Amino acid sequence: MSVHTRSSCKQKCMVVGGSGFLGRNLVDDLLTNGYTVSVFDVRETNPPDDRISFFEGDMCNLSDLSTALEDCEIVFHCASPPPSLGNRDLFYRVNVTGTHTLVEACKLTRVRKLVLTSSASVVYNGVDLKAGNEQLPYTTSPIDYYTQTKALQEQIVLNANSQELMTCAIRPHGIFGPGDQQCIPGIIAAARAGKTKYKIGDGSNLVDFTYVRNVTYGMVLAAESLRAGSQSCGSVYNITNDSPIPFWVFLSRILTGLNYPAPTRSLPYKFVYFIAWITQLICWLVSPVRKITPTLTPLKVALAGTHHYYSCTKAKSEIGYSPKFSMEEAIRISLDNFQHLKNK
After folding, report:
1. Which residue in 7, 64, 229, 279 is deepest, having the highest Cβ count within 10 Å?
2. Is the pTM here over 0.70, yes or no?
3. Catalytic positions, written as ranges
4. Are 60 and 93 in contact (CB under 8 A)?
């Protein structure tokens, strides 16, 4: 493991996965709030910052993590491969094995607090879910293997909660904002490929999209709420913009804001889902002869055509969460940040 120290201050908090989209935004928030910050990641991808100590290593390596966590009081776990990678081995290695290793390293180095970034989708099974709360059980039909490993990851962290190591998890959904590599770039890539001409369903399905700085704000609140005997110890919290928006309205706002046409025609949800299911079945049947990855899957249809949004009531009452950025502000800031993707 290599170490690049840029701060003479005693390390107080560590962001695991701090080079990624969410992690980098969290680092900025922590620095603004006066925390001394270190970052642990597989590689350094951001410009050098003298306020940060960077540790390069493998989160499945106990020695790498233990060295990095010395003197840390709080650990934020943001490390996770992008769901779009589709790499089952990597998902399990990082989300499950890596999280097991991180918990062990926290115990060895006497870290006091561990906050995990989980996913609200761990309770979503591909059908309508309205104002879902934290009391819902983990889905027995996860929408993909990535989500399955996120549920396992969450259980590892919550089960580790003790007097010595206080833990909790937050569940955001549909994170977007400056630096986003998935949501907004994915929408624009689909538009450029001619895949945003039609709505799936009647366009009324509500979905939570969450501005990244609301997520990081919730993470900091969660960490600060972890105290001996507090109700946040061993708990999970939905963290969203608390303003569900029709999926196709959000998508259209992004498209038109960057000079792409919004979809105007609709296709019946059940019809599109059936076509996606048949396509996936055919790809599976021919897989022994030829590997084909379908562009339209039942998962994508469900995500675009069903209600799935979550209640933040628990986060409001227990950790004092309330979104700092409205959906209007979040979309405006994000569009300003993605002008390089604008349709010329």
Report:
1. 64
2. yes
3. 146
4. yes
